[in-house]
Amino acid sequence: MKTIIEPFKIKSVEPIRMTTRQQREGILAKAGLNPFLIHADDVLIDLLTDSGTSAMSAQQWAGVMQGDEAYACSRSYYRFEETVKDIMGFEYVIPTHQGRAAERILFSIMCDENSVVPNNTHFDTTRANIEFRGAKAVDVVIDEAHVPSNLHPFKGNVDVDKLRAVIEEYGPQRIPLVMITITNNSGGGQPVSMENIKAVRAVCDEYSLPLYFDACRFAENAYFIKLREEGYADRSVKEIAREMFSYADGCTMSAKKDALVNIGGFLCTNDDVLARQEKELLILTEGFPTYGGLAGRDLEAMAQGLKEILEEDYLQYRLASTRYLGERIAAAGVPIMQPPGGHAIYIDAAAMLPHIPPLQYPGQALTCELYLEGGIRGVEIGSVMFASKDPETGEEVPAPMELVRLAIPRRVYTQSHIDYVIEVIEALHQRRESIRGMRIVEEAPFLRHFSARFEWID
Ligand code: F0G
């Protein structure tokens, strides 16, 4: 088989800036050893997130110029609505400015203080919006998801027995909806199989519960099904996506991922009563139901992006390029979350740096070293982000895993950029024993990872 190439050529470029190690030391020190606080111009390759960082196509930019900015019932809304319906098949399509706005509206209406919402793994904004409503968010992913080296092909699957147990424990009347996150971001960008979606649907039917998808990366999930699940190799990705959505009653969507735009999102449902209530709430904070916090041009870009995301040469390149990074560093001995997911590679920093205890933040240390070594920005997903406090002693309890996520923006970097990332990681791996732990010197009471400041431990 020949090299899988980037299925696009480049018409418009943005320079990126190489810095010296000495400059980076000064920049990182000024940022309190927290890469979130580094000016993006001082980052060479930015793998902080795949959200809102896609490169738009010429067709999308053409759509931007054609955006109809009518306040109500704009042409761009109808084009967007038609595209979403064509792929997802839901009755009501409500635009929002991004994914979490859709989540807030959905949970404000469907949940109360008694509610319990199961999901394979709640993304942090999903969990936060459920908890903000006073409800409980429960993760019911399969056990294999927690073992980084496990090669299960659908590691995002819901554990149907755990789901049943949650429904039985709290009672179906306390469960306003069941969710599945496709792909499972917090679990390593791992896909969910069609068989599993069907099995969850069957459980929902048994208890008369609605099923919603957190659909941010639905196209990557559909392509994994095509590659890995029996009976789907000859189906188009669009058909597979349609089948996936046919088992759901609605979805939340961050269009900043698989709609290839820099801002946007939406909420879908088949329930007319819910749709009415959701639109009422939308008007309060997002805007009229045909624009929902977005400009007409954003709706055009989303509509076009949703078509492009289903192109199979794009998806083949997308999954191959993420896998390329994962396989290369794994071959060099770097422990990663296996198998490589759709949008990101997660380095297992606890396994790579066993000499650094979890509460000296091996993931944060590795993230800093990635920047110092090569100007690369990743993100710690470990105890800086997710440590908890012991309710009795008040002591910090480490997160279950210490990961560093390298998220790949869509259509932004070429293979030589990724080769460079591989070289930097290999160099770090070779001198891993020289990497020190860190302590926090300043932190906010909530979501401390965004603003905390650190120092190295000698
Ligand atoms: N659900 C999932 C699975 C996500 O990954 C995200 C965002 C959201 C919901 C929220 O969407 O940002 O548009 O409000 N994930 C980004 C990330 C931030 O870096 O993984 P949003």
The strand order across the widest sheet is 2-8-7-6-5
Q: How many structural domains does the protein architecture include? A: 2
Q: Uncertain regions: pLDDT < 50 for 5+ in a row?
A: none
Q: Can you list the ligands bound to this structure? A: ligand F0G
Q: What would the CATH topology of the largest domain be?
A: Aspartate Aminotransferase, domain 2
Outline of the structure:
The chain is of the alpha/beta class and 458 residues long. Helices cover 40% and strands 13% of the residues.
Description:
The chain has 458 residues and is an alpha/beta fold. The protein has two domains: 21-50 and 311-456, Aspartate Aminotransferase, domain 1, CATH 3.90.1150; 58-308, Aspartate Aminotransferase, domain 2 (3-Layer(aba) Sandwich), CATH 3.40.640. The chain contains 16 helices and 16 strands. It has helices at residues 21-30, 58-66, 75-88, 99-110, 124-132, 160-170, 194-207, 218-228, 237-246, 272-285, 296-308, 312-331, 349-352, 362-374, 383-386, 415-430, and strands at 45-46, 92-96, 116-119, 136-139, 178-181, 211-214, 250-254, 265-269, 344-348, 376-377, 379-381, 388-389, 396-397, 403-407, 438-442, 453-456. The strands form six sheets. Strands 2-8-7-6-5 form a five-stranded mixed sheet, sandwiched between helices. The protein has a three-stranded antiparallel sheet with strand order 9-14-11. Strand 3 (116-119), helix 5 (124-132) and strand 4 (136-139) form a beta-alpha-beta unit. The protein is globular. Bound molecules: ligand F0G. The site of ligand F0G has 15 residues, from helix 4 and helix 5. Ligand F0G binds next to helix 4 and helix 5.
